[in-house]
Specification:
Blueprint lengths: L8 H7 L10 H14 L2 E8 L2 E8 L4 E4 L4 E6 L2 E6 L8 E5 L4 E9 L5 E9 L5 H5 L2 E9 L13 H13 L9 E8 L4 E8 L7 H15 L3 E7 L1
Helix pairs in contact: 4-5
Length: about 230
């Protein structure tokens, strides 16, 4: 008996030319929409219901993706609710097509009756990012808080540069993560004791909870200070 070869999400999202004739796997389509939410502040969207079209610009913070029963999702944005089904009569085909090197169309087609369909198309734009960065890189936000019993004027300032050096050292010391060089997106000093850094780690999926735990443990170990590390995957 032959096993079905697993589909590589990045092969579909990054290398697929697409002509809207072949649907992509449901989970990959949902993931692509999640990446739009993560990487874009707004997204152009077209809604077609029974042949009538409407163009919208949506704040991606307003897009909700809720997992329902097995193989079902509910997408909410603005005044619209879109049910996504992976199997059965109401199966929702999802299509992806690259218009050029920086923009793509992600389309969900849902049946609302025997004769009418609703089509929702999100127009993704990777901007200055590469396709790899847009779809594959995991972004992390690290909040570093240093505690001390000394008075403020005696407390050494925790610099962003020192934090980044420690992060790179922490990851490089672990064989499993040594190939994932953190790229600094932004670093901000909130107060004398607090820094928030946002980094991108190439090749890691954003749901890697083990990496979060590893970063907390390794950074605290290498820093060797009375401190608190808060790691958030975004």
């Amino acid at each position: 008996m032959f096993k079905k070869k697993p589909v590589d999400p990045l092969e579909v999202l990054i290398n697929k030319k697409g002509d809207f004739r072949n649907a992509i796997p449901t989970e990959i389509g949902i993931y692509a929409l999640e990446r739009i939410k993560t990487n874009q502040s707004d997204v152009k969207t077209r809604v077609n219901i029974a042949g009538l079209g409407r163009n919208l610009f949506i704040d991606t913070k307003e897009i909700e993706i809720n997992k329902g029963e097995k193989d079902e999702w509910l997408i909410k944005f603005g005044e619209y609710d879109l049910n996504i089904y992976k199997k059965g009569f109401n199966n929702t085909p999802i299509y992806l097509e690259w218009a050029n090197e920086t923009t793509f169309r992600l389309q969900f087609c849902s049946r609302i009756s025997d004769t009418s369909n609703v089509q929702v198309t999100f127009y993704g734009d990777i901007g200055q990012l590469t396709k790899q960065q847009y779809f594959a890189d995991m972004k992390i936000r690290i909040k570093f808080i240093k505690y001390t019993s000394e008075s403020d004027y005696l407390t050494p300032t925790v610099t962003p540069e020192l934090l980044i050096d420690r992060l790179k050292f922490a990851i490089s010391k672990e064989r499993h993560y040594e190939v994932f060089e953190p790229e600094v997106i932004s670093v901000g000093t909130v107060s004398h004791h607090e820094i928030i850094a946002t980094l991108s780690i190439t090749g890691k999926e954003r749901d890697d909870s083990q990496l979060r735990e590893f970063l907390v443990w390794r950074i605290e170990e290498t820093w060797n200070m009375n401190s608190e590390i808060i790691v958030e995957i975004i």
